[in-house]
Amino acid sequence: MKYQDTESSILEFKREVPQNDQIIKTVIGFCNQNGGRLVIGVDNDGTIIGLLNDQILKLIEELNKTIFEATAPSIIPRIYTQTISDKTLLVIEVSSGGNKPYFRKSEGLEKGTYIRLGSTTLRATDDLIQELKWQSRGKTFDEMPVYQTSIDDLDLTKVEKFLQIRKERVPTISKEILFSYYLITQEHAHEYATTAGILLFGKKTQHFFSEAMIICSHFKGIEGRETIATVDCTGTLFEQYDTAIEFITSRLSKSFTIQQSQRTETLEIPFEAIREALLNLIIHRNYHMKSPAKIAIYQNRIEFFSPGTFAGPIDIHNLQSGFSFIRNIAICKVFREAKYIEKLGSGLITIFKSFEKYDLKTPSVIEGPGFVKFILPRGHKKMSKTEETDPLQTLFDTAGEITVSDVMNHLKVSRATAGRQLQALVKKKIIKKIGKGRSVRYLRR
Prior knowledge:
The chain is of the alpha+beta class and 445 residues long. It has helices at 22-32, 53-70, 108-112, 126-136, 156-166, 175-180, 195-201, 205-208, 237-251, 271-284, 329-337, 347-357, 391-397, 404-411, 415-427, and strands at residues 11-14, 36-40, 71-72, 78-84, 87-94, 103-104, 114-117, 120-123, 184-187, 190-193, 214-219, 227-233, 254-259, 262-267, 293-297, 301-307, 364-368, 371-377, 401-402, 431-434, 441-444. The chain contains 15 helices and 21 strands.
């Protein structure tokens, strides 16, 4: 019998109690993000195995003590049993912590802080640790002050343009207006421009955030880095949007129809999908991470690479659910009132529905350690049922190269299972393996 749910960022299975400290790391990962449950007595594939009843009471006592003593700030889990078809399971449940970041005492804050990425627990980077600290203060990075700035670093003519779009009657630009949109903030009696203020309306955005840009590149073929054309999208986020959308649409194939003397141009893939993927990249990326966003156009796909993981517990296998978790509150508010966003949570739904309407292959999403990649297939009609291949091989249709972690997140399987499936394709000479250790990646032959 299978467990009713599948492994995710808020649920993990263990066949038996691990002999190492994996439970501590997993519990810390849950607390640092959205909470979660660790269910012991369930195999990786969801098969219910169960535990012996005479060991459960001892485990509950030991685990409570071990988790409390090994973590800082100390985590007090809720540990209980669950019985399914005469099989007894042990459940360790924790909520999202209010005093982040949580870490393993023996490793310290820098090395002992863990997060959940899909169904995997990973050590947090310095950037993620800082983001956890802001979360515990009820702040987002785009609301934080940018020191060495003042109101003078904002282009108020751009703010006025935004207000003209938002309202029929344009209010006088005042400090109250700037405060209300989190474009400025006050700290120790000094007024600073915020991250959102500089990114949205700054006079010199890249002077303060040199990597807050988008690199758009058109590459030859379906893999490799031979460049046909490239452009750096700089300036404010609105200016970056305009430059990027113009570059992408200029590199795609177009068809034309004439009806009643009117010529209509149609892109090879839905424009609304491109627009929503680009907006998602701009609005939800982690601007604290010092790396640019990237858009790569290949012969068979467009990749939107965004620094930072999902802001909430999103199941990448159910992206059309309409759930929306916002990382940048101020940036999202301005884009919505500037009428770039029609309805929160509808962007991903629009992408999938538009591709379905065009009868194209389904877009895919890969969440990696510190990035999210949206992949829009180009020029490929859906396969018929008889033409469909296994999910692992179809992943190669939308990605030039993949890693074991990509397979784990895409198929929701353990590292061992992902490795076995990839090795099977290597033996069949369908794909090839390149590199060693953590740098190993796989390419279609």
